[in-house]
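Fold this sequence, please.
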Amino acid sequence: MTTARTWAIALTGLDGALVEVEADLSNQQPEFRIIGLADKALGEAVQRVHNASANCGLALPRRRLTVNLSPASLPKHGSSFDVAIAIAALATEGSMDAVSIAETVHIGELGLDGRLRPVPGVLPAVMAAAREGKRRVIVPLANEAEASLVEGIEVIGAVSLGDVARRHGADVEERPLDPVPAPSVQTADNGVAELGEVIGQRDAVDALIAAAAGGHHMLMSGPPGAGKTMLASRLPGILPELDDAEALEVASIRSLCGQAVGTLVRRPPFEAPHHSASIAALVGGGSRVLRPGAIARATHGVLFLDEVGEFNPSVLDALRQPLEKGEITIHRAGVTASFPASFQLILATNPCPCGNYGVRGGSCVCPPIAIRRYLGRLSGPLL
């Protein structure tokens, strides 16, 4: 057999597409080439596959080896294709079970010693594989717990390329290697602030409860130290817990951001970007790899903008379309990605630059034009 096929996943935002990885041997001058609209990081897989195979006791063919990523028109990026490329290349000489390889999706980056390294976006990638009808996926051991959150698909965690090859029937000596450790998992349930801890501020507490009950957005205006930030941080604690679909979507976004995911967290997320944040930090972006911004990370939870009078007006107006549609679509050269943006917006601001305008017993030194300019950063459509 000179041709071998397996599967990988190409992610665009949270959407994943099945990619057929096919390798072919030909009697020409020895070369290893990857085709199919691969980016630079993916093109560097050639050297990673060479070294990983050699260090695991697996010999690559010494003829011209061409690996095609199909569909060729779909952009592919990142190192998560390494394992699929290596297995397809090694299988061209018929040393492994072709049926097993063709029925398995491979996700993971290869280290030069042959170990499988964790990659971001494993959860949405496995979800995409399950939607496409695949029933088995091999991932780095560090990503096994994350991938296992998807029901209806067999998840196999592997330590090294040799482990993957043996799984497909290769006769290769087992070499003990320490698995690449997974990042520490942080849950949203540690140190949750409770609204019952607030003493006083009865009107503000009632307004927060009404906002939580009706899913309303909220703007709080008051002098520094009045408790605006304290109240906003306690809103997730009185919101309903996320259901399975919502928790899985939130976990997928966290995975895409490269954060560790071990279990489904039911607490609604809370995002509070600094007032110096750019539009890209808020809505997401990137050049070829589009990452979610604070809007997407706050999906099914709370987006809190403190000191909103200090935000750039163009950044605030970028919220208008996501608030109306419940999603954000990012367009870049050659790629478009959509992220969910169903969040509850909580804004907090001082009444003026000095913070004392309209405060009983306070002494505001701000001229009227400065007050109007400060509050004018919130456009009419946003309000």
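The mean pLDDT is 92. The first strand starts at residue 3 and ends at 12.
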